[in-house]
Design a protein that fits this description.
This protein has helices at residues 2-35, 40-68, 70-88, 94-122, 128-148, 159-170, 172-177, 193-199, 201-227, 232-259, 262-284, 298-311, 314-323, 331-360, 364-386, 406-409, 425-435. It is an all-alpha fold and 436 residues long. The chain has one domain (2-417): MFS general substrate transporter like domains (Growth Hormone, Chain: A).
Length: 436
């Protein structure tokens, strides 16, 4: 573990800055959109731009990295992300913000791909499980810290936008100063959707529906909280609870899925999330009223945590379930295919959810989550009736973030083994110097 940290500290530090800025930015834009009196539909459309950019960037980044290399790509797109957030504070318009969010999405998928392929190159068969675990902790932990930066200054001021730009720019320093040689980028072939559907219909359909859920959840939660008259501190708390609950829930639910039928665990989890979404609506009651009249938010926090516990591990469960029905050598390409399906759903999530909120009111947010979680559960029950469970000894649950790229999926210890990183004598001496 110590060797992993020493070998990749610069990348981990850089990614922690990036994820702090990412967590801060998502909440800031949601709150500012409400304060600027953007319509809910316009806000959902604007926030969906991130996932459009993410989807477009995922298709183009391999060619860019192959041409100019990891360090230049990381520097260029981190700089672009730093620049884009500043433009948000100058040009305040839903359409312009949508285009800026597209650029942010492209930048982030490029950064993820560089980081995860670099980590993959620096990992050996013995350490990649540890690397993935550290990476998960950094991602969720940094996002959680970023949520509390919302209290730095009023979202109506320009200072929060400058702070995000500063944090993003700071991520460049450890990456550009590292002596480590960047890896040789390896393109990963994606299973086409037809082949993936034939292997696991439930996997690809649930991944698409879950992309719709996840994108709406992370982009519109701050919008929901603002519309319910949460204070800035309370918005920070609820968004922090989302990130941390998801990280904590991954491992216990994953362990259960390795013991029992994984499809049943997915179905129980998704219906559990649906039930807690409805209960969260019921306990919200009069939370939106002014001080002195509003009901306590304690029960809301409790049931929202339970919702997050059931909902956030689902992408990892879906990935593990899909691997149950394919051979080991296809694990990475299948994961890339699931990410493609996830992205298709994610592009529409914020916009569709905003329509629900426009029609039903603020609690349309949880009505939307209830409906799509229920759809996953209903389709899962249908698939269990038409196909028996398959026992694949090569497949097991491994916790992964929803933002994982194909390069990051290779860090899964159950995928095809990778060779030990080759180091020259010169690289070994450099490593030893850095370790002292």
């Amino acid at each position: 573990m110590n060797k992993v940290l020493k070998n990749s500290w610069a990348l981990f530090l850089g990614m922690s800055f990036i994820m702090m800025a990412y967590g801060f930015q998502g909440s800031l834009l949601g709150v500012r959109a409400v304060q600027e009196e953007f319509s809910l539909t316009a806000t959902g459309f604007m926030m969906s731009g991130y996932f459009v950019g993410y989807f477009l960037g995922a298709a183009t980044i391999p060619n860019i990295i192959s041409r100019v290399g990891h360090i230049r790509v990381f520097a260029a797109f981190a700089s672009l992300a730093s620049l884009v957030i500043l433009v948000h504070s100058i040009l305040i318009n839903p359409l312009i913000w949508f285009l800026l969010r597209v650029l942010t999405g492209i930048s982030m998928v490029c950064i993820y791909t560089v980081a995860e392929s670099w980590l993959n190159d620096r990992s050996s068969n013995k350490t990649r499980g540890s690397v993935l675990s550290i990476y998960m902790v950094i991602l969720y932990g940094s996002i959680g810290v970023g949520m509390f930066l919302l209290n730095f200054s009023s979202p109506q001021n320009f200072q929060p936008f400058i702070l995000i730009s500063v944090i993003t720019s700071a991520a460049l320093i450890p990456i550009l100063l590292t002596k480590k040689k960047p890896p040789t980028f390896k393109k990963i072939k994606v299973m086409n959707l037809k082949e993936l559907y034939e292997a696991s219909p439930f996997g690809i359909v649930s991944s698409m529906f879950y992309g719709t859920i996840q994108s709406a959840l992370f982009t519109l939660l701050a919008v929901y909280a603002t519309s319910m008259n949460f204070t800035i501190l309370e918005i920070s708390i609820v968004t922090f609870l989302l990130a941390v609950s998801g990280a904590v829930a991954q491992f216990p639910i994953g362990k259960i899925s390795d013991i029992y039928d994984r499809r049943k665990v997915i179905v129980y989890s998704t219906f559990g999330a649906a039930v807690f979404a409805i209960i969260t609506i019921l306990v919200s009651r009069q939370m939106y009223l002014p001080d002195g009249l509003a009901t306590s938010k304690t029960l809301f926090y409790i049931f929202f945590i339970l919702f997050s516990f059931c909902s956030l591990p689902m992408f990892s469960l879906i990935l593990a379930h899909t691997n149950d029905f394919i051979s080991k050598e296809k694990f990475v390409s299948a994961g890339a295919g699931l990410q493609f399906a996830f992205g298709i759903g994610a592009m529409s999530g914020p916009f569709l959810c905003s329509i629900f909120m426009d029609l039903v009111g603020s609690n349309g947010f949880f009505v939307f989550l209830f409906i799509f979680h229920s759809l996953i559960g209903i389709f899962g029950i249908y698939r269990m009736k038409v196909r028996e469970t398959v026992d694949n000894p090569d497949s097991q649950f491994v916790a992964m973030p929803e933002t994982i790229t194909p390069a990051g999926i290779e860090l899964n210890p159950t995928t095809e083994p990778i060779s030990e990183p080759e180091k020259t004598l010169k690289e070994e001496k450099e490593f030893n110097k850095e370790s002292i």
